[in-house]
């Protein structure tokens, strides 16, 4: 009997530690040959089409990284622009494989929608913008103001919480599409416009006279933004999660798109695992051993993605801040690829 019990325990351990079986989304993505990503309808620096219809931004590059991991080709992706109201239904219904649009990770979203967050690709906070001509220097001076906000967002909820917590009155002006919100704000339908601070900075760069607008100093919330997938497919969840971690880990170990081939010669065991010189990590994910190398060579590490889309190489000129690596005082901390 002891022998039988031992055999049963051993079999159970093998089952737990073995490679997870591919699930419905993983299989469907593999079969159709591309990743369908839900992105915003247009936020400069995050997901925005240019004059030729090419989409760029941090969220688009996150989608490209997933494609590079799955297929070895970062261009095997398509995007579906989604408003905040549309995004969760589109993911639940299977219209998209993953949301890589700016979506805040919250407990409610992880537990009531049949969806789950896979990590953070941008740490943000909600703010509020006004025209300088109204003479306001603090959000606490906005008692009785009208505020433009998009529905179906944590932004809408945080706005109400902040004003209530500070015993101030306000009147929401609810508009679904971002471009319509912006037009309403510029036209004077509302005194202020609220959303994530990075988004406010991006929108301000599109104005004819950006210096006429002020982002007020208050932070209304914490906004950890990142990809979301449907629950029930751990294999697909892992590909999305570890594609993000690979970009962060690559930056930590000094691997970038320019030196990735040279780094293949590194004696660092961590670098060897990340780049697939030491095999096994790709098999565990159900992809090729070069999955992370493909991400870095074709898309870049996290720092490269940040700088070209929203950092000093972009019109937004955002500081790394919370999005710096943990070694540099930020919150970006790649999980070990081992």
TrEMBL record:
Solute-binding protein family 3/N-terminal domain: residues covered: 34-263
Classification via Pfam families: SBP_bac_3
InterPro entries cross-referenced by the UniProt entry: Bact_solute-bind_prot3, Solute-binding_3/MltF_N
Gene Ontology biological process terms, A to Z: amino acid transport
Family annotation (CDD domains): PBP2_BztA
Signal peptide: 1-22
Entries under PANTHER family matching the protein: AMINO ACID ABC TRANSPORTER PERMEASE (PTHR30085), AMINO-ACID ABC TRANSPORTER-BINDING PROTEIN YHDW-RELATED (PTHR30085:SF7)
Family: Belongs to the bacterial solute-binding protein 3 family.
Protein name according to UniProt: Amino acid ABC transporter substrate-binding protein
Organism per entry: Orrella marina
């Amino acid at each position: 009997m002891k022998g039988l019990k031992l055999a049963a325990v051993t079999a159970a351990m093998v089952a737990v530690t073995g490679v997870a079986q591919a699930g419905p989304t993983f299989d469907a993505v593999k079969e159709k040959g591309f990743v369908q990503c839900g992105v915003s309808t247009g936020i400069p620096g995050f997901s925005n089409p240019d004059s030729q219809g090419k989409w760029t931004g941090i969220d688009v590059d996150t989608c490209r990284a997933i494609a590079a991991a799955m297929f070895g080709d970062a261009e095997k992706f398509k995007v579906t622009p989604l408003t905040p109201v549309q995004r969760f239904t589109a993911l639940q219904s299977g219209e998209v494989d993953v949301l890589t649009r700016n979506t805040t990770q919250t407990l409610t979203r992880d537990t009531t929608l049949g969806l789950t967050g896979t990590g953070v690709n941008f740490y943000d906070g909600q703010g509020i913008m006004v025209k300088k001509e109204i003479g306001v220097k603090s959000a606490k001076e906005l008692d009785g103001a009208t505020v433009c906000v998009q529905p179906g967002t944590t932004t809408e909820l945080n706005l109400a919480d902040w004003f209530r917590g500070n015993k101030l009155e306000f009147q929401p002006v609810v508009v679904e599409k971002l471009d319509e919100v912006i037009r309403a704000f510029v036209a004077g339908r509302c005194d202020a416009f609220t959303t994530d601070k990075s988004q406010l900075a991006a929108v301000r760069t599109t104005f004819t006279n950006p210096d006429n607008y002020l982002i007020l100093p208050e932070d209304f919330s914490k906004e950890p933004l990142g990809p979301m997938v449907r629950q029930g497919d751990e294999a697909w969840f892992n590909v999305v999660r570890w594609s993000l971690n690979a970009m962060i880990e690559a930056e930590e170990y000094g691997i970038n798109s320019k030196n990735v081939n040279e780094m293949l010669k590194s004696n660092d065991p961590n670098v060897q695992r990340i780049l697939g010189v030491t095999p096994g990590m790709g098999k565990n994910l159900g992809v090729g051993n070069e999955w992370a190398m493909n991400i870095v060579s074709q898309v870049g590490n996290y720092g490269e993605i940040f700088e070209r889309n929203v950092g000093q190489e972009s019109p937004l000129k955002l500081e790394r801040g919370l999005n710096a690596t943990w070694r540099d005082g930020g919150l970006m901390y790649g999980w070990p690829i081992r």
